[in-house]
Structures are given as C-alpha cells and as structure tokens.
Amino acid sequence: MNIEHIRTFLEIATTGNFNVAADHLNVTQSTVSARIKALEERLDQPVFLRGRNGVELTAAGHHFHRHAVTMLRAWEQGRQIVSLPEGFQGMLGVGTQVSLWERLIAHWLPWMRAQAPDVALRLQSDYSESLMRQLSDGLLDVAVMYSPRATPGLEIRKLLEERLVLVSTRRRKMNAGWPEDYVFVDWGPEFHSAHSESFPHAPSSAVSVGLGAIGLQYILVNGGSGYFPLRVVRPYLAERRLFRVAKAPVFQRPAYLVYPTQPPDEDLVALAVRGLIHVAAMEKER
Length: 286
Known about the structure:
Largest sheet: 7 strands, mixed
Shape: globular
Number of strands: 11
Structural class: alpha/beta
Distance between the termini: 53 Å
C-alpha cells in the first residue's frame, strides 16, 4: 500500500476538506482525489462521505483510521532506523506524558545517552491511551504514564507517586467554604473518583481544564485555586505567589512504567527501565 495514500487519507480525516489537505501536503487537489480513489479501490470500500460542507469518514474509514496511523508511524520509525548515521547500533522508542517530561525524562535522557552512546533515542509525547496503543503495536519500547491499561504482553509497574495539593492565590482554609474561584484540573479517572468522594457536594467549576500547565497559568494570572503537583507549585509557594489551602485533602497520583514482556532487544529495554527507576528514585519527593 502506498504510504502517500495513507498520509493523504489521514490529512483529509484531520482537515475534513480535500482542498485544505492538498495545501497542507503541497500537492494539487486532483492528486489528492486520485490518491483517495486508489486507496478506496485497494480497500474495496469508500472511506469518505462527500458533502457540501466537506467530507467525513465512513464506517470503513473509521475502522481503517487507527491502522493508517500505525502504518504511517511504523514507516517513519523504519525510515529513521535505516537512516541512522554511522556509529549508531540501534534505536529506542520512549513515550511519556507531557507532565512527566521535566521531572523524569529530562533527567533520564542524559543518563541513557551516557550509558548507551551508540543508541539513538526517539521520544514521543502523548496521552496514556495512545501510548498504550503504540506499545501494543510495537512502535514504542518503553513508556511512562499515569493511566495504563492491563494489556497482554505488556508489563506495568509503579514508578513514582506524586502528591496533588490544593493551592490558592490567597490565604484560605478549607473549612471556610468551597473556593468560589476553584479551577478543576482533570488529572485522570483516579483523581476524579477521589475528588468526588472527598467533595461530594462541590458545585461544578466555572473553569475546567484537561492540562495542568494551563490551569496553573490561569490562576497565576487571574487568581483562583486548584489541585496541582506539589513539585510543580513549590517555587510559587516559596515566592508566596501561591498558598496551600489549610486542611484540604492531599491526593496521590501514581505514574507507571510500561514495557513489553518480551521486547525485541531485552538488554536495551532493561537498561532503559533501570535508568528510569534510578532517576525516579533520585527525584522522589521529600
């Protein structure tokens, strides 16, 4: 199957428009149409429904989408491996959630380069669900995440545990009532469950975000309160830009290390795992 057909399919699925996809791919609209026609003939199924307002995936298109993503990633990975400069013996694919980069991966990276200077490192940042899928598809060798899913062929082990604390831009106590300027940060299903159990009568927040960095920036600029990792807010607590909310519960947020039980290169994966465990131990919160 032609990789450019796959790339074109994914671009149209993202943009919902043949002309926009053509602009992004730097080809003509007729080339885009020809590629999709060839793909549909190969699949013997239409993958897009054409309408006046653009296109959308058919049922077959939806089924094919995940596999198309996997094929394109596998192609890019293979292209990178065969293009490794002289002196490199292999490549290790490592996935991480964005919020674990600064605390863990940024410190592990130089450790791994020193231990295996002849191994190229390919880093991928994504959410847990996508990282798990890439591990299952063999596109990643190791990943660290907050919400792994038990999957045959993959080993899951707890790597570290973060403390989520309630902070505010002004001094306050929990028994003074629910903060009216509370920003809800969705730290995952475990946090959501524990939060609901601890605050069963809390009203819905006027502002909810899915990324901690956005929530923190919002309250620092506009004022407010919310739950954030203690390691992240420590500098702001020291500067008195933020204050711990007295008597507020503290939630635990574990991060996990996930890797194949039978990796293609057991020694290399074992080395990467050992390094991540070492860095996590060094970064353990006091």
